[in-house]
Amino acid sequence: MTETESIAYDVVVLGAGPVGENVADRTRAAGLSTAIVESELVGGECSYWACMPSKALLRPVIAQADARRLPGLSQAVQGPLDAAAVLARRDYFTSHWKDDGQVGWLDGIGADLYRGHGRLAGPRTVTVTGPDGTVRTLTARHAVAVATGTGAALPDLPGLAEVRPWTSREATSAEAAPGRLVVVGGGVVATEMATAWQALGSRVTLLVRGKGLLNRMEPFAGELIAEALTAAGVDVRTGTSVESVTRENGTVVVVTGQGDRIEADEILFATGRVPRTEDIGLDTVGLAPGSWLTVDDSLRVTGSQWLYAVGDVNHRALLTHQGKYQARIAGAAIAARASGVPLLETDPWGAHAATADHSAVPQVVFTDPEAAAVGLSLAEAEQAGRRVRAVDVEFSSVAGAGLYGDDYRGKARLVVDLEREILLGVTFVGPGVGELIHSATVAVAGEVPVSRLWHAVPSYPTLSEVWLRLLEAYRDN
């Protein structure tokens, strides 16, 4: 191991995924010198093992499902998907797991990239151990931002490592569809990967410990998606735990808590996420290794004047778009403090406050049908003590839904704060609804009064006309 001299920067960022890249972009735009450290591929989980490859796998699946709902077109798309072509397109969108383009982008903004394992080594200090064992020490005049993301959480099952289970990484980067796939979990990764691999030729069994799917959304979202997965051929088993997993002569053998034995070629565990903070030197600054990092609304770690935690590691909203939003807030806050601004704009919706994390987090689940939601569910609003009313509408009442495809099934819900008459939450379930959610995000984040929304006229005949039906239902009942 060779040690080199210390190099000083204004800001040091740990992690060059989308979140770290955006912190670097904002601090560089403010004129601060910035170093960014990455141990894997620049672009991070989202670019190579999550958002981009998963959506590349799912897009042909959804397009085929939409086409099959249209007489005149359905007859032309009755055959199976060309799995090899779908996987090749997935590989294109991951840049074949090469990061040259994203490295070039970092060069373009003037951030210095250090490849290797970065660890805190005391206040405002980061050591980087490179692939050749060389250790560099980086010091930060103003801030260190931790943007190391999360990894897959695996259950504590004896012998699981020997089984070589899939996590989200293997599920999005597999070179071929397994003949039989068991998916354990009921959340976004589980439902999306069950959707993708079933359509690409796998016989999928989905094991869900709880009562249903997508338990953080309105109940009808999970119900409609479970029905659709079952209709597509997925064996959906709720209330089912995994007691043991072994691999015998290449075959995965799963025994459930109900005593069922299931054989498969691969098993995917989509059972949550853990922060990648185990070996980044948190102990050197008085924090617990492996912990989630608690932050204020400027994304500064509680009790620190210089350490920031941005994106998944702070556990506020484990979504790429929300992490990038946080990065823009953190970059602005770091720059403002570095320039000596005496008072940051940290009031709700201020330039240095990640307020949307509390009230207006959007998410889309790219299954068939899609599920999209922003803000609070009815149950969350009631648990928070808000006086609310839920308004539900079936998409069958919307002309655009029928035009979108025959037998269109979907549902929408508004959660209305009755004291202020603003929207606290909106949920859409149905084909194509992912493109509706930003209008709902604007309404929730902007706290637009229902009376004003009445004058936001949706175009006819589009899916957006569901807004008119929802507002009519609120007004007339």
From TrEMBL:
Cofactors required: FAD
Keyword Flavoprotein: yes
Keyword Metal-binding annotated: no
Domain of life where this protein originates: Bacteria
Signal peptide: none
Family affiliation: Belongs to the class-I pyridine nucleotide-disulfide oxidoreductase family.
UniProt cross-references to InterPro entries, sorted A to Z: Class-I_Pyr_Nuc-Dis_Oxidored (IPR050151), FAD/NAD-bd_sf (IPR036188), FAD/NAD-binding_dom (IPR023753), FAD/NAD-linked_Rdtase_dimer_sf (IPR016156), Pyr_nuc-diS_OxRdtase (IPR001100), Pyr_nucl-diS_OxRdtase_dimer (IPR004099)
A Pfam family assignment: Pyr_redox_2
PANTHER family documented for this protein: DIHYDROLIPOYL DEHYDROGENASE, MITOCHONDRIAL, DISULFIDE OXIDOREDUCTASE
Protein name listed in UniProt: Pyruvate/2-oxoglutarate dehydrogenase complex dihydrolipoamide dehydrogenase (E3) component
Record-annotated FAD/NAD(P)-binding domain positions: 9-321
Keywords per UniProt: FAD, Flavoprotein, NAD, Pyruvate
Organism listed in the record: Streptomyces pseudovenezuelae
Gene3D superfamilies on file: 3.30.390.30, FAD/NAD(P)-binding domain
Limits of the Pyridine nucleotide-disulphide oxidoreductase dimerisation domain: 361-467
